[in-house]
Prior knowledge:
Catalyzes the ATP-dependent phosphorylation of thiamine-monophosphate (TMP) to form thiamine-pyrophosphate (TPP), the active form of vitamin B1. The protein is α+β, with helices and mostly antiparallel strands.
Amino acid sequence: MALGEFELIRRFFTAQAVRHRETVLGIGDDGAVLCPPPDHELVVTVDTLVSGVHFLPTVDPERLGHKALAVNLSDLAAMGAEPRWASLALTLPEADPAWLAAFARGFFRLAERHGVELIGGDTTQGPLAITVQALGWVPRGAALRRSGARPGDRIYLSGPMGCAGLGLKIRLGQVAFDDAEAVLRLEQPEPRVELGVSLRGIASACIDVSDGLAADLGHLLEASAVGAVLEFEQLPLTEGVRRYLAGGDWRLPLVAGDDYELCFTAPAERVLAASGCVPVGHIVAERGLWLRKDGRDIELLPQGYEHFA
Ligand code: ADP
Ligand code: MG
């Protein structure tokens, strides 16, 4: 029997473990009612994943459910926010119960790990696309921003670059070797939520790397009205990416998207004992982005994925 819109919502999207006392009203009415604690500010972000643009139509739906939420939690992490709520707008070609069950499993497993309560959404029929809106909070004035980097600040990365990009090349059959780590990072990225929260009051600026390091660091530099020098030899790379780079295409870690690591700046005198973050360069007053590689400085254009470009 065909699964109708309301039965679908009830069956797959209303059973969840996370409930916050700040949720006055969740799923089931025309809107949710939320009451963040006093002296906090709400941080809101939204991201859409379109089949064929952001993911391959054949991707495991459980991983897709995870990723749809993860990319939004990554934006909250870049703001230093603690995630609390999400809404989910699903456009589906058909209501396939097995697909929906797997999607919901991936979504709610990540949601539970980060204390995210689903508080509403929309369900429509059409070409497969998933929009998630995530909400979190920060103590008043504590949100991290892209602006705020100053000349002399160090630039840090929370994890390897180009790994998800390699995963995509593997999925597209463009690389001759396999790398399960790269494919996992592409399809099931881990948002750096705890790191983002711990960087409040420490990072002078922060962004998450979704469109490629050159492009996203470029946005941070633009917002801060500064420039930067990146040290190629210091970029954190996985074994698989090193192997790929040995083939000659050294640009991958600079231009490939989907890594969802944090790129942030902090004053140089600040000793960052922080969990696995790697210094990869420094901020300069002159605007622009230079890559120091093999003893030369190469100017990088802010290239990365851009829709409509
Ligand atoms: P409306 O017509 O008022 O927009 P809907 O009929 O679309 O409301 O949705 C009914 C309820 O189910 C609303 O509370 C809505 O937020 C929720 N909802 C709809 N789709 C989803 C979904 N995919 N996930 C979670 N909640 C959903
Ligand atoms: Mg309504």
